[in-house]
Amino acid sequence: VLGKRSDGFHELESLMVTVGLYDTLRFTSNSSGILQLHCRFAGLRDGASEQSAETLPVDFDNLVLKAARLLRDATGCTQGANIELWKRIPLAAGLAGGSSDAAATLWGLDRLWNLNSPPRLLHEPAAQLGSDIPFFLSCSSAAICRGRGEIITPVAVPAGLQFVIARPATGLSTAEVYRQCRPETSVPGANALVRALARGLLHEAGTKLHNTLQTVALELNADVRRLRRMFARLPFTGHLMSGSGTSYFGLCRNRREAQHLAARLRAAGAGRVFVAATRP
User: What is the pTM of this model?
Assistant: First the structure.
């Protein structure tokens, strides 16, 4: 986070990468013109309890329905849709689950309704909904995102980089974290991290991980503090909070190490723990 902009947003430079952790959306036509969303939590493992569907809004506070309505407004479409969402990506975790769902909704409904919108028409509502949503429409598996997040520069990051991701029981408000954020001008640039990852220098990459928002999250949330201590005791090549938190990730040398360290974190009560790899 480099500074506060005159439009109220923050100036960002972020490396975003896709990993193999997905929600599932299904879209079917609704001839009545109504937009309906049905959500359920799917695939919770590692002994985690089922989250209550009440924690995920199914009205127009949900980014999926916001995306559907913005697409109709932008195109003049009057068609409806039944949307089913199976959540696997944890909520309020800094993993962009809601943003990726919103992007998938824009793309999926554009196809369902045979709108054939040009990319620009989809990117405009995406940027209105959230600064990181355009990334998920970019067809890039990794990119440096600048501006408020909408300026996307694809980069080459190796497929198969192994991560362990832990999500504690508590979450954080993205708006509150940004509100209390203190921008930094002298921070490691994302380009240096990309170069280290591209060359396979995982230890060097670990030294270049940085998240300005982590300082605030550590002050606001005891679980982030606890996860940082837990990850620091284990032989990750680097570790960091993801996005605005509260999820925390560690970079591993290989899949076997990732699975071993994930098991240790589960045994230590780190919360929901996933092993995930970057995608091609």
Answer: 0.90
